[in-house]
């Protein structure tokens, strides 16, 4: 791991340039925006009891959409988060890094949870009340009037904000390790950097994918289900924390070898295609594993075969994830060489959209519960209807306000396509 002290970070980096990585910024934003797609799709899942609320017009594609996104979304996001975290640490130093992460991560986590937990519980209460209304009384106003507004804080979980909670662990660990190793073990740091250089760009670059697979595959075997377990409690799930830490760490290290970003643009489409194909295979294997686990005991797979299927599924997922990480990085950095104002606007809005979306993925479909149309069409319409108020609220309440400073570090002009540069408040 290449490290620098906060006092000499820019000098240590020498003449290395710090361009704006528009493509990787775009990837990070898309991974957050896919949260809207994922959690809305779960509402239309055909498997009873799989999610906290289910629409009667289910879609046969909802489960597949959710599964495909779940396989790769968070690993890709954590690689991007590690990369940009290291960029901030190197460019601004440890003190600024700590304050910046506190403002952008800890404050939204704490305030966001106390705001969003009640909203989620009330959305669920409304949905269940609307569902249970007697006869032909499908009044939304009536459901709002009769629903329970009480809250149970006995065993609350982190909800979808668990990723912010885990990011706090990663930022503290990697920042402290960078300072300690940079101060106490410079020879070890240089040796590690030489090894990474050879593996990423040198003669051993062809072992890049096998090496990443080798270190991440054992962590996947600690999961209780195929893919990644989803943290449900504030107490860290150490296997999940460790598994995602690897992806975050790879992103952190890659910033110090950012010439790799340029190298990944070669054969980028090939890697991306390979990742997509393996993603499809991984999804098929995951479905087979899930079906076998739900089968009656008389039809269940032999334990040895089930264990082998689990290992193969996890292995295919790991290879697919790393190919998608490398392929998406190369392709997006090739495509987004310059800033596009519309794309930049969505990138800026993505954090707010992800923070606020979960209650709406319950409330808005519940409002249309008795609108009986094709489940697949309804699912995609709900995704649009969930996104619209999130974009409007971002534009009116966040973009040009103090909330924009907390979430993005600056106030942007409210009109998104203006030529005026925003005032940087970082």
Summarize the structure.
The protein has helices at 9-12, 22-43, 62-92, 94-132, 140-146, 162-184, 186-200, 208-220, 238-255, 259-263, 268-294, 303-335, 341-367, 375-398, 402-408; strands spanning 410-411, 423-424. The chain has 426 residues and is mainly alpha-helical.
How is the secondary structure organized here?
Elements: H1 9-12, H2 22-43, H3 62-92, H4 94-132, H5 140-146, H6 162-184, H7 186-200, H8 208-220, H9 238-255, H10 259-263, H11 268-294, H12 303-335, H13 341-367, H14 375-398, H15 402-408, E1 410-411, E2 423-424
Antiparallel strand pairs: 1-2
Note the main attributes of this structure:
mainly alpha; 426 residues; 2 strands; globular; two-stranded antiparallel sheet
How would you characterize the overall build of this protein?
- The protein has 426 residues and is an all-alpha fold.
- It has one domain (15-282, 318-395).
- It contains 15 helices and 2 strands.
- It has a two-stranded antiparallel ribbon.
- It is globular and about 75 Å long.
- The two termini are 27 Å apart.
Strand runs, count? 2
Percent range for helical residues?
55-70%
User: What coarse outline follows from CA principal-axis ratios?
Assistant: globular
Largest sheet: 2 strands, antiparallel
Structural class: mainly alpha
Main β-sheet, spatial strand arrangement: 1-2
Cα radius of gyration in angstroms: 23 Å
């Amino acid at each position: 791991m290449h490290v620098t002290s906060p006092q000499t970070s820019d000098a240590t980096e020498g003449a290395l340039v710090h361009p704006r990585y528009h493509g990787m910024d775009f990837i990070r934003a898309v991974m957050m925006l896919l949260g809207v797609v994922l959690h809305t799709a779960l509402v239309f899942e055909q498997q009873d009891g799989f999610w906290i609320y289910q629409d009667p017009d289910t879609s046969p594609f909802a489960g597949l959409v959710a599964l495909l996104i779940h396989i790769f979304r968070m690993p890709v996001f954590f690689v991007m988060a590690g990369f940009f975290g290291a960029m901030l640490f190197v460019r601004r130093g440890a003190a600024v890094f700590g304050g910046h992460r506190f403002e952008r991560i800890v404050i939204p986590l704490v305030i966001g949870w106390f705001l969003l937990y009640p909203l989620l519980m009330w959305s669920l209460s409304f949905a269940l009340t609307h569902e249970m209304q007697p006869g032909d009384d499908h009044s939304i106003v009536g459901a709002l009037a009769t629903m329970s507004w009480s809250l149970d804080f006995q065993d609350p979980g982190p909800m979808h904000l668990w990723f912010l909670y885990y990011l706090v662990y990663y930022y503290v660990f990697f920042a402290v390790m960078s300072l300690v190793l940079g101060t106490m073990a410079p020879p070890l740091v240089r040796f590690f950097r030489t090894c990474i250089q050879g593996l990423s760009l040198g003669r051993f670059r062809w072992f890049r994918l096998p090496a990443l697979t080798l270190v991440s595959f054992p962590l996947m075997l600690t999961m209780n289900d195929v893919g990644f377990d989803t943290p449900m409690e504030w107490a860290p799930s150490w296997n999940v924390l460790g598994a995602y830490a690897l992806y975050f760490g790879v992103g952190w290290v890659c910033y110090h070898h950012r010439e790799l970003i340029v190298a990944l643009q070669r054969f980028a489409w090939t890697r991306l295609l390979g990742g997509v194909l393996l993603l499809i295979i991984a999804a098929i294997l995951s479905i087979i594993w899930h079906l076998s686990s739900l089968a009656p005991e008389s039809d269940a797979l032999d334990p040895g075969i089930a264990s082998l299927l689990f290992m193969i599924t996890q292995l295919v997922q790991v290879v697919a994830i790393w190919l998608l990480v490398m392929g998406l990085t190369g392709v997006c950095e090739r495509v987004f060489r310059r800033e596009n104002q519309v794309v930049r606007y969505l990138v800026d809005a993505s954090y707010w959209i992800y923070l606020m979306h979960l209650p709406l993925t319950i409330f808005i479909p519940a409002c249309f519960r008795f609108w009986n149309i094709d489940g697949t069409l309804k699912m995609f319409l709900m995704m649009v209807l969930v996104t619209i108020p999130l974009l409007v609220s971002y534009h009116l309440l966040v973009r040009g306000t103090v909330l924009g400073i907390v979430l993005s570090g600056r106030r942007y002009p409210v009109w998104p396509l203006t030529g005026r540069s925003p005032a940087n408040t970082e």
